[in-house]
Design a protein that fits this description.
Elements lengths: L6 H14 L9 E6 L3 H11 L4 E7 L3 H10 L4 E3 L2 H6 L5 E4 L6 H10 L3 E4 L7 H13 L4 E3 L8 H11 L5 E9 L20 H5 L31 H12 L9 E7 L12 E7 L5 E6 L11 H6 L5 E5 L2 E6 L2 E6 L4 E6 L6 H11 L9 H19 L2 E2 L2 H6 L5 H16 L10 E2 L3 E4 L4 E2 L6 H5 L16
Parallel strand pairs: 1-2, 1-4, 2-3, 4-5, 5-6, 7-10
Antiparallel strand pairs: 7-11, 8-9, 8-16, 8-17, 9-10, 11-12, 12-13, 13-14, 15-16, 17-18
């Protein structure tokens, strides 16, 4: 087996020039490798396989249980636990990366360097620095790279843009991004988890630290540990904040100028590290954005500001305007006037054509044909990383200080009031909880780094991470 450090350089020299020049005909089969075969990975493989002219030719997962399950759906596909074998295979045209978050960028860069196109799940990165490295790789090797924010391919989004442009509801005042994703505890065990015998644990870890795991399951619940996941902000956040960037800002605001976040992990007392209640304010220099995510049970009978009740309808995005508001989620939404009268109902498909959009761009060789081109989705993922960074730098929460952090902006005070209401309804006493409130981070948007007093060593360190030997994201792609 070629060493981890040298296999890519060798395979790239052999295949990149040939693959980069290859223009796929309308009837030519596009050969896909699916890397990561959990629930989302199997779903992505199925969506790709339904596109005419696509064949799933390679299956890859460090767990043989997942491989055996996927093999039943694609009996003619090759299988491997080691994604390096996929990169070395010249018969693979493109890869779909549906691994744990900590693998997204390195797997994608390896594929790009080997001359393959990439579809990578959200968040497209585990941190901001490596997301930029992925964009640099896509540009250097002229690859087609699509992010897995499928709502970009829903025609609904263009309809909402046109409605906002028509001015029926007037100027946008602010936007509230919300999500309730009710979850259960991931448990806590006394001794470190022993990975299943079916898993090549070195390959599962890849770039992540080899540290003891005290949750009950290896798979999926990696989302709630910082070593491998990005919490709910990095799970649903990339979808919702990408909707925001696309529909409201038209991708003209790459990153916010300032971000502050707070919250905590309450009630469960489990092995998870990421917050199950998370709120944030994002200063774009124009339209203010507030974010509000909760995993604890939804409670009935909450008496709170009207905007909170709108949130409780399941809306991802609430666009508050001078003369009305829009509230919607995946696949649909409704616009109302200032008196609550329905103005228009929008219906979409949730982005069912996203896989087909990726394949069409592979055939045209035009990144401009992509609905979710990698740099746009890098930015949307980075918004989530910023909210997580402020939270992770947080100190003890004091309500008065939190409210004063964003002066003269009532919606922020509403978010904080809603947070306390949420705790009460879940029979939690704020005075006994480990609530964190992070600093107001200031950014140099062009350089994607912190500036001023917030450019502390601790903050700058969270822009990237330490990589395990042999699995480093390269500084020079």
């Amino acid at each position: 087996m070629t060493s981890r450090r040298t296999f890519i350089s060798q395979s790239a020299l052999a295949f990149t020039a040939l693959s980069a020049s290859r223009v796929m005909g309308a009837n030519e089969t596009i050969r896909i490798a699916s890397i990561g075969l959990g629930g989302q990975g199997n779903g992505n493989a199925g969506r790709m396989a339904k596109v005419p002219g696509v064949e799933i030719v390679y299956l890859c997962d460090p767990d043989t249980v997942a491989l055996d399950r996927a093999k039943k759906a694609y009996p003619n596909a090759k299988t491997t636990q080691d994604l390096r074998k996929v990169m070395e295979d010249k018969d693979v045209d493109a890869v779909v990366v549906s691994t744990c978050n900590h693998w997204h960028v390195l797997a994608s860069i390896w594929a790009i360097q080997a001359g393959k196109d990439v579809y990578v799940e959200k968040p497209i990165s585990h941190n901001i620095w490596e997301g930029r490295k992925l964009v640099e790789a896509a540009r250097k090797y002229n690859r087609i790279v699509q992010g897995g924010t499928q709502q970009r391919s829903d025609p609904l989004q263009d309809e909402i843009k046109a409605f906002l442009d028509a001015g029926t509801m007037g100027k946008i005042k602010y936007v509230r991004c919300n999500h309730y994703s009710l979850r259960n505890t991931i448990g806590k065990i006394d001794k470190p988890l022993t990975p299943p015998a079916t898993v090549d644990y070195d390959l599962w870890l890849g770039p992540a630290k080899d540290e003891p795991i005290y949750r009950e399951k290896l798979h999926y619940d990696w989302h709630w540990n910082w070593n491998t996941g990005n919490g709910e902000m990095g799970n649903w956040g990339p979808h919702i904040l990408d909707d925001l960037r696309n529909v409201v800002f038209r991708d003209k605001v790459p990153l916010p100028k300032r971000v502050i976040a707070g919250g905590g992990r309450f009630a469960w007392n489990d092995a998870g590290e990421t917050p199950n209640t998370h709120f944030a304010y994002m200063d774009t220099g124009d339209i203010p954005v507030i974010v509000d995510f909760h995993n604890l049970p939804r409670q009935k009978g909450v008496k709170a500001p009207d905007v909170y009740l709108r949130r409780r309808t399941g809306a991802f995005l609430i666009i508050e305007c001078e003369g009305g508001y829009y509230t919607g989620s995946r696949g649909g939404g409704t616009a109302y006037d200032a008196d609550g009268k329905k103005l228009h109902t929008f219906k979409g498909d949730g982005g069912k054509t996203h896989a087909a959009n990726f394949i069409a761009a592979l055939r045209s060789r035009k990144s401009s044909d992509l609905k979710a081109e990698i740099e746009d989705i890098h930015y949307s993922s980075a918004w989530c990383h910023l909210a997580n960074t402020s939270y992770r730098l947080g100190h003890k929460y004091v309500r008065e200080q939190a409210e004063a952090a964003v002066k003269d902006f009532q919606p922020w005070n509403d978010v904080i009031a809603d947070f306390h209401e949420h705790l009460v309804k879940n029979e939690l006493d704020a005075s006994t909880l480990d609530i964190k409130m992070g600093p107001m981070l200031e950014l140099d948007v062009a350089k994607e780094t912190f500036v001023g007093d917030t450019a502390s060593p601790e903050a700058l360190a969270l822009l990237t991470r330490e990589y395990r030997s042999g699995y480093e994201v390269p500084k020079e792609v």
